[in-house]
Amino acid sequence: MLRLRVSTAVLGWVLSCASFATVEAPLANAEIEQLCAQAEDAGHCGRLVEKAQLNRLPNLARREGSALLVSLFPAGTATFTDSDDAVHGRSYSLWDYLDGINAVLLYTTVGDKTTFTLLQRTNNRRYELPTEPQVSPDRQHLVTADICGPACTNEVAVWRVTRDAVRKELAWSPDAAWTDAAAKWKDAETLVIEYSIGNEATTATLERKLGDAAWKRLPLSP
Q: Element (H or E) spanning 121, and its range?
């Protein structure tokens, strides 16, 4: 499978694309498997990963009860507070630090839905991403691949990163037969997308350049 699933029933697609992780401070797949093997649910897994990351990145964030406090740059603090609502409860857990773009990645649960929240440390702006993003070699883009059927957007998306904002720039919906996919950067202008179809154990790959005509190009707001 392209998606690393510590426990399919518990975590769903929390670790989507983890095998292609290119961010600067990720835990190894084996570490995540070990941490989350006994997790009660996705939020619990996030907390276990957070505990390990807080030890690795002691000056980046700290937890105070239901609040996660992340240091901004050059000064300040961003606060993410969990909600215990039985239906729409929300939780945030420190997942990674993307040094190349000075951003923090949080694993986020809202009810049964799981996403990632990207925090730009220079301006405290926050963006919801469907899966764990991969940073391009030139640090100008992110890519997310959210392919899993009805529960996903079934879209590969490229996001432009600037000092002031992160905006979706390109989107592409692959063949409906795809059931899983992960994307990594071959170079700053080329993606390698690995995918599976149906229940087949084998996978295939394709390359797609950012200039390819197949992309849907989204207008960038000012």
A: none
Please, are residues 183 and 20 in contact by the beta-carbon 8 Å criterion? Answer: yes
Residue 123 host element (H or E): none
Sheet with 134-135, edge to edge strand ranges:
134-135, 141-146, 155-161, 166-172, 216-217
Structure tokens at 34: 């070990």
> Is the Cβ–Cβ distance between 195 and 203 less than 8 Å?
yes
pLDDT digits (tens, 9 = 90+) for 33-58: 899 998 888 889 999 999 999 999 98
* Amino acid at residue number 121: R
Amino acid, res. 82: D
Q: CA geometry: angle at 109 spanning 156 and 96, to 5°?
A: 70
Packing angle, helices 42-56 and 29-36, rounded to 10: 130
Q: What is the DSSP string of 79-90?
A: EEE-B--TTT-E
Q: What is the pLDDT of residues 152-188, one digit of tens each?
A: 999 999 999 999 999 999 999 998 889 999 999 999 9
Name residues whose C-beta falls within 8 Å of residue 164's C-beta, 6 or more positions apart in sequence: 123, 125
Domain residue extents for the chain: 8-217
- Please state the length of the chain: 222
Q: What is the pTM of this model?
A: 0.85
Amino acid letter at 151? A
**Does residue 214 sit in helix, strand or coil?**
coil
Closest CA to 63 of 47, 74, 75: 47
How far is it, in rounded angstroms, from Cα 56 to Cα 26? 10
